Amino acid sequence: MATDKELNDFLRTVDRRAFKRTAYLVRDDDAALDIVQDAMIKLAENYFDRPAAELPLLFQRILSNATMDHFRRQKTRNAVMTNMSDFEGGDPDGDFDLLEILESHEGALGASSAADEVSRAQILQRIESEVEQLPARQREAFLLRYWEELDVAETAAVMGCSEGSVKTHCSRAVHALAKSLKAKGITL
Fold first, then answer.
1. pTM of the complete model beyond 0.90
2. Residue 85 phi/psi, 5° resolution?
3. Is the pLDDT of residue 86 over 80?
4. CA 149 from chain center: how many Å?
5. Averaged pLDDT, 103-116
6. Helix runs in 81-147, H state only
7. For residue 35, what are the CA distances in angstroms to 20, 67, 74, 80, 116?
């Protein structure tokens, strides 16, 4: 049985990585934060009586399930209702220009910095974009194996599939990423 301190220490060590991984998957920081917090609460409420050694795999499984639940809810919500106000601007005259909105967001994010930092940020953004383009199972396997640094057996347990499937998903993800990044001139 994990003590309160062990549980708190565990949650402190995984919060940032779990958020980043979930943000990659759902592509929405607010939703990712909600998902991670819900997963942490479920772990604390439902599995407090488990040994500390079991917490990492349990948390990863809970987080994966919470992410899939998010996608299911989102799909249902989108099927029932399309919110066109997402495409409207705050201009009372009704003039809406998507390019102006994108330009203002880029301006806020692209603060002046050294050329190396800008280049690095652009490369990381391209890599993130390519990771986002992977099919869901490949992306999940890739992030669990190489971002969360789980071994094949742990990844299979979290994903609810065989170790062979994990290896296949990871291999396909790595090859797809290498091919697409090479085509964009990025070699690692």
1. no
2. -65, -15
3. no
4. 15
5. 54
6. 98-109, 115-133, 136-142
7. 11, 7, 13, 22, 34
Q: Long-range contacts of range 45-51, CB-CB < 8 Å, 24 or more positions apart? A: 48/1, 48/2, 48/7, 49/1, 50/1, 50/2, 51/1, 51/2
How far is 89 from 11, CA to CA, in rounded Å? 39
Average pLDDT score over residue span 89-114: 50
Q: Which two tokens stand for residue 148?
A: 């969360």
The first and second tokens of residue 2, run together, are: 């994990």
Mean pLDDT of 118-139: 84
- The sign of the torsion formed by the CA atoms of 179, 135, 42, 1 equals negative
- Look at phi and psi of residue 112 and say left if phi exceeds 0, alpha if psi is from -120 to 50, else beta: beta
Gyration radius of the chain over CA positions: 20
Confirm if 89 and 96 have CB atoms less than 8 A apart: yes
Phi-psi region of 28 (alpha: psi -120 to 50; beta: other; left: phi over 0): beta
The beta-strand segments (E) located in 48-96 are none
Q: What is the mean pLDDT of residues 8-36?
A: 91
Q: What's the chain's average pLDDT? A: 80
Cα separation, 153 vs 133, in Å, equals 25
Angle (deg, nearest 10), helices 4-26 and 115-133: 90
